[in-house]
## 1
Amino acid sequence: MHRVIGLLALALLLRSPVAAAAQDPRLEARLDSATRVQVEAVLASARDEGLPTEPLVQKALEGSSKGAAGPRIAAAVSTVLADLRRAREALGRTAGDDELVAAAAALRAGATPTMIGEMRRVAPHGAVAVPLAVFTDLVAGGMGADAAWRSVADLARKGGDDEAFLRLRDRLESSPPGASPESP
Amino acid sequence: MRSDDRSPLAEGSEDPADPVIERLVARLREPVSLSPGVERVVLERLRAEAASGAGQSEAAVPLVFRPRSRRWPALVSAVAAGLAAAFAGGVLFGRWSTRPPGDAAGVRPVEFALRTPADSAVALVGDFNDWNPGATPLRRASDGVWMVTVPLRPGRYRYTFIVDGTSWRRDPAAPRALEDDFGAPTSVITIAQR
C-alpha cells in the first residue's frame, strides 16, 4: 500500500506544471545556461502568480533568434512579466491568457488601467482581447492613443463583434493621414 | 461466541454419541442389495457406451464440465493492461492535456506573403513556431511573391520574415508590433473568433 501511495505521489510530482515547465526543452536548446537560469526564475514567478508563461517563453525565443545578448533577453522577459501583472490588475483574476496578452500590449501602447477596466464593462460579452489588440495596432500605426481609444470604445458600446473591430482597424489604417477616425 | 454456547451438533465426536444418530448411521451403512435385473441393465449400457466411444466424447461430457475457451477475458485483460500503461505513461510524462485538439479550437488557415527577389530564400518566424527559422519556409509563387499558409488559433501573434537567412523584414501588409525589444522589425496579426 505504501508503495502504491509513493508511486502516485511521484506521478503527481512529475505531472506538476512546475516540473514540466522547468524542463522546457525549447529554452534549454536556445539559451545559454546563465540566461536560462534567469529566464526560468521569471517563469517560476509567473507560475506562482498564476500568470501565463508562454508569452515569456516566446519573448526569450524571439531574442535568441534575433541574436540578442543574454542580459537583454532576460530583461525583455522580465518586462513582459511586469506588463502581464499590470494587465491582470486592470482586468482582474478571471482574465484569460489572450486577454492578458492583449491588455499588456495596450498598456504599453498608452492605455491606462482605467481604460482597460472600462473596456471590460462596455465590450460585448466583456470580451476585450480583440478590441484591445486593435487599439494597440492603431497606435502602432501612428494614431494618437486618445483618438484610437475613442474609436475602439465607440464600437464596443455599439456591440461590434471581433470581425467588426478588425474591419475598423483596416479602414482607419488605410485612411489618409489626418483623416478623422470614425466608427461604423 | 463463547465455547459453552456451542450447539451439540457442532461438537462432533468429542461428546458422547446420541442414540438416535447412532441408529441412523448404522442404517445408512448397511449394504444396499439391488435386484439382478437392475445390475444387468446398468452393465449392458456401460458396455455399449464403451464400445461406441460415446462415453469419452466431448459431446457426452456435461456442459458444466466442458473446458471453455477463455479468450475474451484474455483480450479484455490485454486491453485493460494497455490502457493502464497508457494512463501511467500519460501521468508520468505529462501527455494528458485539457487543451483541445488543434482542429477543434477554431483553427483557421492564415496566408503570409512577402514580395522579394525571386532568387531569395524566405522564412517565417513568430510566436506560433517558437521563432524557429527552419520551421516555416515560404514557397516561391509568381512575380517575386513568396507565400506560406499557417494554421492559427484565435489570438494575437508577433512575427517577421527572414530573407536569405540574414535580413529581417516586417510584413508591410500588417500592423507593426510596438514591443520591439530586440531592435528588429516585427509585425503582428490578430486572429478573431469566428
Note: The mean pLDDT of chain A is 86.
## 2
Amino acid sequence: MILEALEREGVELIFGYPGGANLPIYQHLPEHPKLKHILVRHEQGAAHMADGYARACGKPGVVFATSGPGALNLVTGLCTAYMDSVSMIAITGQVNSTQVGRDAFQESDVIGATSSVTKHSYLVTSIDQLPRVIHEAFHIATTGRPGPVLIDICKDVQMAEAERVTPERLEIPGYQLNGHVNLDRAREAAQALAGAERPVILAGHGVLLSHAEAQLSLLAEKAAAPVGTTLLGIGAFPVNHPLSLHMTGFMGTGWNIKAVQNADVLMMVGMRVDDRVTARLADFAPKVKTFIHIDIDGSEMGKNVRPHIELVADAKQALTAIIEHLPEPEKSRGAWLAQIDAWREEHPLRYTHSNGHLQPQDVLVDMYRRCRSEAIVVADVGQNQIWAALWWNYDRPGLFLNSGGSGTMGFALPAAIGAKFGRPDKAVWCVAGEGGFVMTAQELSVAVEHQLDIKIVLLNNFSLGMVRQFQDDFYGGVRSQVDLTHMPDFVKLADAYGLPAIRVTKLEEVGPAIDAAERAKGPFLIDFRIDPEANVYPIVPLGKSLNDFWEAPDK
Amino acid sequence: MGPTDCIAALPPATASQGPQRTAAGQAPLLSFPLKSLEKEMPDRIRVLSVLVEDGPNTLSKISGVIRRRGFHVLAISVGPSRQPGRSRLTLQIDHGHAEADQVRKQLERLVEVIEIEDVTGEQVHSRELIVAKVSASEVKSLVDRGAKVLDTGPDGTTVEFAGEGKDVGDFVNELMRHGILDVARSGPVVMRRTA
C-alpha cells in the first residue's frame, strides 16, 4: 500500500536502508520494479542523496529508514534539507502501534526528534490514515516553501491489509499557500526601486526554486540595478553580467559588500537574510532608506531585517508584478554603476600563486574551465565550499549545489551521488575537503556499485582548513585540534572501494589529472595536495560589520 | 478596555509560571512581584487564540516552536472547540528578542495550526480560574468577592474564583490573609467582545 502510493506520486527512486521496523515494506519492494531502490551505506547518506537528487532535478527525494538508530541517522540530512528548503519525503519504520511508548527494541520518538527539522511530520498508527497522509506529505513537501516531510509508520500498519484506496481530495485546513501578490505593494516596490539612486538587488535560493531567473534579469536590466546572490542563490543571475555583484555576505566579494553597504534601496528576493549575509546585523546596509523583502514564507518578514515593503509571494509572481509596475528609473544610474566598477577594480578576487604550493583556486579554475558551465558541481562545507562558490562565473541556475544554511560537512559525496541519479545527463563534480569527505566516504560504495560518473576533487590540506583559518585570525592564533595528521591514503582508499584515483601535488599535474578524470567512465577521485595555509578571502571577522572585510594579503 | 488595560490585566497569570523565588515561609506563587512584572514586561507579551488539530503531536509541536524560536510560555489553556477534532488554545507568550508578530507567524507555519488570532490589546473577555484551599473557615470576604465555596472541613476551606487576570491577582492577595494551604490556577481563556 505504501509502495503503491509512492508510485501514484510519481516516485522513481528511493534511497534507503532496511531494518527491523520497515521489513514489511522491503518484503514487497521487489513487486514494484518501477521503484528503483538505492541501498546506501548509512542513513545520513540516504538523506543527502535524496537532497542532492531533489536539488538537481526538482522532484522530491525519497528516503527509507528503519526505526530508532536508522531514523535518527537521518536527522542531520533532514536538517540540511530543511534549512535550505529542499523537498524530501522520509518514510521511517516505527515499532508496532501497540508497543509505542514501551521502550521497545529500536524504538525512538522520531517525531519528537525531527519536529524542528521537518516542515511537517506524521505518525501513522492506522492503515486508514495512510493514503491521505502520503498524498498530503508530497503536497506539503513540494508546494509553497519546500521542505522535508517525515512519515513515521508503525510496523503493524505496514503489514495491515487494506483495499486499494484512491487518495482523498486534499483538504489540509492548516496549510495555506500564498496564492497572490498584493499589487499595491508591488507598485510601491517598483517605485522605490525606480526612484533609488543606489539600488541593489540580492537574490537567494527562492529565485531558483521558483525558476524566476528570467524575471530577475529583466527587472535588473529595466531598473538598471546591480544584482548579487547569496551562497544558495548562485546561478540565479549570471556572474558575467555587467550588473552582477557575484556573491554577497561575510565571504562575499568586496564589490558586492561595498555595494550593499552603500545602497539606498535594497531589494531582497527569496532569501532569509541570515547572519552569513548580514554579518553584524546592526551595521548591515546602513544607508538603506527602503528595504524591500520578497519571500514566500511570511515569517521571514522582519525575522532578521524589518522591511519597509514586504511581498509575501513566490519570487516569480512578485518579480513579474513588480516589472509590470516599474516606471523608467528616475535617476541616472551611471555614477552608481561606475562606482561599483571602481570597487570591482579595487577589490578583485585574488589569491597567492607563488609560494610553491598547489593552490585550490588553480585546481577549481581548471576544473570549471572543463565543466564549461555544463556540469553540476556539488561542494562540501568549509573553505572548499567558498572557493568553489567564488572561483567560477556561474551563468545559469542549478549547477552549484551545497549545504548553505546547515553547513553540513559530509554533504558533498552523497549529494553528488543523488544529483547524478537525478540528472544522469549531466557531468557531476564533487568538491570536498578531506575532513568532510571522510564523514560520509562509505557512500563511495554506492558510486562504484552503480558506476556513477562522479568526479571527486579532494582539496586535501591535512587540516580542518576553515576552522584553522578562524583560529589563526579570530581565536588568538591558537591551533587546536585542526590537524588531520592521520588520514587514509586516499588513492589506496579509492582502490579499496574499487574506483580509480590519482594524487596531484604540482600545478602542472592538475590539467592532465582532470583530463584523466573526465575520460574515465564511472567514479574517479583526485587527491589534490593543496597549500595547507591557503585561506578564504574576502572574509569578515566573526562578529564584525560587513564594512570590516579582509582581503587576501599581498604576497 | 484599551490595550494597556488588557495587558495590565493579564500578566498576573505569569506568577505561577515565573522563576521560583522562595522568600522564607511563602509559597513561590505568591512571592512573585506582580506589579513590577507588569512594568517590566508588558510590551513583550502576546495573547494568542489558536485553533488547532486535536492530534497527538500538536501540543509538542507548538511548544517546540515556542522553545526553538526563543519565546516563552507564560500561560496556556487547552480545551475542545466548537468543531469536532479541533481544540482551542489560549497562549500568553513572551516573544523575547524577536519581533512581536513572529510568534503568530512561526506558529502559523505549523500544519496543525488551523487558525491563529493575536488578541493582544484587543477587546476581549479574559477569564482565569483559581481553586484554593485556605486554613481559615471564615471566608466571607472571599465569597463577597465572588468566590464559591467548594467544601469546608476541619482542615480548611476550598474555594474557586474566576475572573480577569487582574481580579484573580487581587483575589490571591485576599487569599493570603486566609492562610493559603494549596492553590491551583489556570491560564486565561479569551474571547473577543461582541460589543
Note: The first strand of chain A starts at residue 13 and ends at 16.
## 3
Amino acid sequence: MDPRPKVLITKIGFDGHDRGSRIVAAGLRDAGMEVIYTPPWQEIATVVKLATEEDVDVIGISSLATDHLIVPKLMQALREAGLADTAVIVGGIVPDEDEQMLVEAGVARVFHPGAAIDEIAAFIRAIAPAIRARRLTA
Amino acid sequence: MNKPIEDRLLAAGEAEAQWRREYAAQIGGERAVTNRSGIDVAPLYTPRDWDASRFDADLGFPGQPPYTRGIYATMHRGRSWTQRQLIGLGTPADYNARLMDVLAQGATAVSLIPCNSVFRGVDMDESHFELLGTCGTVVNTAGHMQRALAGVDLAKTSCALNDPSPFTLLAFLLATAKRRGTPWHAITGTSNQSDYLSHYVANHMFFRIALPGARRILGDHIDFCNRFVPKWNPMSVVGQHMQQAGATPAEAMAFTLSTAIQNARDCLDRGMDPDAFLPHFTFFFDISISFFEEIAKFRAGRRIWARVTRGQLGAKDPRSWRFKFHGQTSGVDLTRQQPLNNIARVAVQAMAGIFGGLQSLHTDAFDEALSTPTEFGARIAVNTQNILREEAHLTDVIDPLGGSFYLERLTDQLEAEVLRVMKIVEDAGGMYAAVESGLVQKMIGDSARRFQQQVESGEQTVVGVNAYRAEEDRSARQPQARPDPAAMRAHLEEFKTFKAGRSAQAVQAALGELARAANDPAINVFGRVVEAAEAGCTHGEICATLRRELGFGHVQAVV
C-alpha cells in the first residue's frame, strides 16, 4: 500500500471561493501527499462516498463563508458510514466560538488564514500513520 | 538669464551620474524590487522616465478623454464617492432594521447582499437551515423584497443588488415598485454581479447557468433594462473576483476590460447602439495594498477603456467612454493575526482607490479575516472613509499624484502590461473563448500560487504572519453576529405558508412561459423572469427552470 498520506480536499455548502482549497491541494501534493481535489459545492453525501471509494486518511474542508457550520453534519454522516477514524481538518475563516464547536464535534484541527502549507503538511504527516493503522484494523 | 537648455541637460546628466554612483556605493548589494504585476521598480524616477510633453495626449484634464486624471471635471472635489457598504444578514426584517441604521449613519445608497443559498440558486426550504442568513439576507420572493426595502423610496435611492444571472432580485425589486406605484423609469441602481464570465473565472458562490445560456440571459437583461429601466446599470464588469482569486492587478484589469469588450461585442451583435448600452456599463475592482500599483492600475484602465470605446466599439457619446468603477478594499491582504492591523491596511487600500479616482467605495471591516464582519468593525470601516475625506483632505485636489514621474511611468507600464494580457485573451478568441477553454483560470491559478510562494518564502512581508509576529491578541475579537434561529424559523414557516397559498396555476403558467422563452431566442428571458416574480414564483423555482432548460455550469477541477 502506498505509504503516502491520502487527503481529500473539498468544500461543502454554498460558497465557492476556492483559492484556499486549490492552494492547499497543490501544496500538499507538492509536499509528497496523494491528494484528491474536488471543486466546491459538494453534497455531504458525495464527500462521504468519495472518502469511502478513495479510502482517504484525511478530509480537508475549506470554509470561507460560514459553511463550516454544517461540518458537524458531515462528522455524523462519516460515523454512520463507518468512517469514524478518518480525520477531518478544517481551514479558512472560522471564528473562535465556531472552532470550539468544531473541535467538540470531532474535527482534528482548524487552520486559520496565514497557516503555512508546511504547517498543514506536518500536521497531516504526524497524524496519518495512526489513522491508517486504526482504519486498517477497523 | 537662464542657461541654454543643452547646458542644463548636461548638468542634469552629471548630477544624475553622481547620484547613481552615490546610490550604488551606499546601497551595496540590492535585490531587485518587483511589484505584484511583475514590473521592476526603480529606486528613483526622473523626467527621463516620463516626459511632460505628453501631458496633452496622455493625461489632459479631468472629464476629458482619455480620462487618465478622472472621468468627471470636478471629481471628488465636486462630489464625494458614494459610500456603499455591503450589508445583508438574516431575514428581510433584520436587513431592513440594519438598512435604516446605515442610512441614518450617512450611507448614501442601498446595497443588498443575499444569503449564499440565494447565490446558489435555491430557496430556503431547500437549504441547510444552519447556513440560512449567515452571510446575507434570505430573499426568495417579491414579498421578501418588499419587506426588506420597507420605508425606502425606490425613486430616490440607488440600489446595488448583488444579483447574479438570472437577476431575480431585480425582478423582485421591479415587482415591488409596481405594487407601490413607483415607475420603473425612475429606478436607479446596479446589478452588481451580472458578469457571468467572472463567476466562471473565480468560482465564488454564484449560481451558474451553462455558458451559452448565461451569455444570452445577460444580453436579454441589458436589452430589457435599456428599454424599460433606463437609469439602471445592468452591466457591472467584475475584476474583483479575479484579483481575489489570485490575478495580479494588471491581469485583473486586463481580464475585466476583455470581459467588458466581450459583452459589448455581444450587444453590438444584437444590433444594439453602443451609446445606448455603454453608459450603463460599470466596473467593480479589488484594491490591494500595493499602493502605487493600484493607483496606476485604475489610471491605466480608464485610459484604455476610453480608447477602446471610442475606437473598436464605435461609441460617440462621451458618457460611453467613461470608466465608472466601484472599489472594494481587498480581503486577501487582511490577516487573522493581530487583526487591528487590518484597520491600517484598509486605510492604505482605500487611499489607493481614492487617488485612483473611484466612484464608489466599500471599505472592509478589520474583522473580515476572523468572521463575517461585525457592526463594530463595519462602523470603523465607514469612519475610515470619513477620516480620509474630511480629516485628511484627500479630496481637495483632483488626481493629486498625477505628474509624479514614478506614477506616470508606472501608469504607462501597467497600461503596457494590461494590453499585453488583453492580447493573449484576444488571440485566444476573446474572453468568452478564453474562459471556456480554462486559459484565464489557469493564468490566475498560477499567479495565486506565485504570490503564496512569495509570502511563504518571506519575499513578501505580511506583518503578523511571516514577520513581526506577536502573542495572539484576542482583545479585538467581537462576538459573531448570527441570525436569530427563532426568527429564521418563522421566516421559513411563513415562506412555506406563502407557497402553499399561491395560485398554483399562475405559478405553473409563468414558469412554463419562462421555459418557453429559454428555448426561443426571440423572447426576452429576463422579461419572463420579471413576470414570474410578479406571479409569485420564487427564486429557487425560477433558477431551477432555467437550470433545467439551459444547463448548469459545473466547475472543472483544476489544481
Note: Chain A touches chain B through 36 residues (CB under 8 Å).
